[in-house]
Amino acid sequence: MKALKQARVKNKKVLVRVDFNVPLKNGKPADISRILAAVPTINYLRKNNAKVILLTHLGRPDGRRNDDYSVKHILKEVEKALKTKVFFAPDCVGPKAKRIIRGLKPKGVALLENVRFYAGEELNSVEFAHELAEQGDLYVNDAFGASHRNHASVAGIPDFLPSYAGLLLEKEIAELKKLNHAKHPFIAILGGSKISDKIKVIDKLTEKCDAILIGGAMMFTFMKAAKKAVGKSKYEPSMVKHAEELLKTGKIITPVDCVVANIPGKNSKTVSINKIPKSCAGYDLGAETIKIYSEIIKSAKTIFWNGPLGMAEVKPYDKSTREIAKSIPKCAFSVLGGGDTAAIIKKLKLEKKFSFISTGGGASLEFLEHELPGIRALR
Fold this sequence. Notes:
With 379 residues, this protein is an alpha/beta fold. It folds into two domains: 4-171, Phosphoglycerate kinase, N-terminal domain (Rossmann fold); 182-369, 3-Layer(aba) Sandwich (Rossmann fold). It contains 15 helices and 17 strands. The strands form four sheets. A six-stranded parallel sheet has the order 5-6-4-1-7-8, with helices on both faces. Strands 11-10-9-15-16-17 form a six-stranded parallel sheet, sandwiched between helices. Helix 8 (199-208) links the parallel strand 9 (186-190) and strand 10 (211-214). It is elongated. The chain starts with 12 loop residues before the first strand and ends with a helix. The model has no long low-confidence stretch (mean pLDDT 94).
């Protein structure tokens, strides 16, 4: 895999796949972290007189043009982050895009329309990848958060152009690789709603970790596997058998109590995990579990965290995520998987507790399992 600094970019049209898939609120970016993360790569190219052409997806428009997911909604924030004029092309291929690109001067930046407006993107269509590639001289992947996708703009374009890893992609790989040579005790903290989203990485982590602390709605699948009542809590019936096997490893640590309610946010109470009322569902870890998990974490030398531990977007169910983040020791190497977890941690203003915050939620998980398609394509 070639690093960006090996490329000769002067006067070249450089297609840069960025991950500007930021959350929108009332049509405006609610969190620009991913935009800011790509700035070093873009500035490096501009400093070296490249013509920079930015490719990204935004949301899930399902291969059709949908103005709700137009990247024009993020244009001003991109300009603000780069402190320069950015030319917007209302398409990512075709005459409109080519006209904008043709007008670029060295140091100029163009932002092309959402690549997911074309079905060929998610299908990794050879034709669509070739059409995108024809618009540049070189390709740079700086979209770690999308590199687990076998999509045309991520894994297809490198078949047609000299291709390089961007500065952000290089940094993500370097930091996450440290988990392969982790100091022990190595503790994983896994939350979120579904075991099925994380099952392969949980299998892998049972080989690497000393303990895996379970939170989020996924804990109820483990509770079912342990033959415990879960009330109205959500769980995955199809994953109960696999959860039983994981419990046999002795590495899976499950809650001893949880916060339950009939209606989320109303009349919440903490109960033993063995005494969840039939009429209630669980929404957060209880105080005793927070205490136990925090004690385990304080002794850790390496920590990997992916997924909120409760329904953290609804108060008071952000308590376990907040309190357990506070317990992370400064002396540990700690990695936070991106996505929803990173957004919540930043909202709680606890990002400084972590050694590294990845820009990719699903990508950081899959990186621990296997080489990502977007990275493999650069080889």
